[in-house]
Amino acid sequence: xxEERTQTRARLLRALPKIELHVHLQGSVQPQTALELAxxxxxxxxxxxxxxxxxxxxxxxxFLAVYxxxxxxxxxxxxxxRITYEMLGSxxxxxxxxxxxxxxxxxxxxxxxxxxFDGIRAGMRDALRDYGITSAIIPGINREEGPEAAATYxxxxxxxxxxxxxxxxxxxxxxPFPPEPFAPVYERARKAGLRLTAHAGEAxxxxxxxxxxxxxxxxRIDHGYNIVDDAALLERCRDSGILFTxxxxxxxxxxxxxxxxxxxxxxxxxxxxxxxxxxxxxxPPMFHTDLANEYLRAVEELGFSxxxxxxxxxxxxxxxxxxxxxxxxxxxxxxxxxxxxxxxLRQIDG
Length: 350
Ligand code: ADE
Ligand code: ZN
What we know:
Blueprint: H1 2-15, E1 18-24, H2 31-41, H3 60-72, H4 77-93, E2 96-103, H5 113-131, E3 134-142, H6 146-158, E4 167-171, H7 183-191, E5 195-200, H8 206-216, E6 220-223, H9 231-240, E7 243-246, H10 248-254, H11 266-272, E8 276-279, H12 291-300, H13 306-319, H14 324-348
Parallel strand pairs: 1-2, 2-3, 3-4, 4-5, 5-6, 6-7, 7-8
Helix pairs in contact: 1-12, 1-14, 4-5, 13-14
């Protein structure tokens, strides 16, 4: 009976129209694709018996080490096309209609940025044609490389500016790399018309969330879990309605919060505290998940009600970096489907 209920929930959640605001292109490479690209490009991956075995870690830095090795296997324009097309195809299969994704251009030091952009944009175009899914690029700044490298990175990125390049993010290993030194580069990105977000409070303290808001001027916080340690900041964020892009499965790999059912799990607490949040997949194959499964885990393990799920979907519509006419169209076109799916979810629990 429980199994049947889970399957019904999974089917309903998958069918809901969704937006993904926190997924990394290089973290979305399917294991089989990684092995094939590595073989084709003559890149040696760590020895492993099966593709899945590559994707095993339980801390953020161990995960990032594998992320960096995998990125080396992506070399040619057609490789960037393939991983983008596969990521968006998978998102579409999970009910996503629009994806704003991080791309780590700096993870391929031997590949010119122009080639990376060409392949990624070709993948986006083909995914739009074949799956009807729209998408946009958020170049991720590698905080480990420091603010000077970040400034050069921004210069490079701006050379390839187009309407689909919508913002910048800050990622990689957080704890020893606070946000403040990146303030000048964020200021420059803002003046260039880019939208701003940053990973904060995943492996770093609540003060990194505060500094991302106050020093970097971000409009969204990626993860943000350690905000639960600072009641005043939590209240401030609840009142200002800043969006937190949460990723349930990620917490079980990169943070000490391995049990989504625990009353102390930060996403549960953030939801109960009334923060504005949404659900995302981060690095789906690398965390053995997909977008619809993140919604299922939110319901079955983090205690999200049908109303919470409905709210998270509308939060993504409200906070996507699109023009208001697109937002209005999404709201009116998706509303019947969302209402029907949410009502059916409510029925399951009687
Ligand atoms: N890059 C890809 N996934 C990440 C995460 N969860 N934290 C920091 N950097 C990342
Ligand atoms: Zn992330």
